[in-house]
Design goal:
- With 109 residues, the chain is mostly helical.
- The chain folds into 2 domains: 48 residues; 50 residues, H-NS DNA Binding Protein (Irregular).
- A two-stranded antiparallel ribbon has the order 1-2.
- The radius of gyration is 30 Å and the shape is elongated.
């Protein structure tokens, strides 16, 4: 490997060198990942499987988990609820604006 005296390079040359090194590292990692994938695919094929059969092609899960449990319930329509997260629904806003405490809508647990 060539020894480069970094102290003799100016800022532009140092930045260009860093850019080249970063690009070379990224290419190296990509190449190694491709080699590893090819080796795993070959091993799966040797055993009579495709890689997708072994690891599955499950789609990535969207969302952040299960919906939060409702915390507040509409007094006149029990099917209308609110978890207490996110924007307040209009029925909560209207009731609080008219002086009803938010606690009156809590679902007993």
């Amino acid at each position: 490997m060539a020894n480069i005296d970094l102290d003799k390079l100016d800022l532009t040359e140092l930045k260009a060198l860093r850019k080249d090194v970063d690009k070379t590292i990224a290419n190296y990692e990509k190449r190694k990942r491709q080699e590893a994938l090819a080796a795993v695919e070959a091993a799966a094929k040797e055993k009579g499987f495709s890689l997708s059969e072994l690891v599955g092609n499950a789609p990535k899960r969207k969302g952040r988990g299960p919906a939060p449990a409702p915390k507040y319930r509409h007094p006149e329509n029990p099917d209308v609820t609110w978890s207490g997260l996110g924007r307040r629904p209009a029925w909560i806003k209207d009731a609080v604006a008219s002086g009803t405490p938010l606690e009156n809508f809590l679902i007993e647990r």
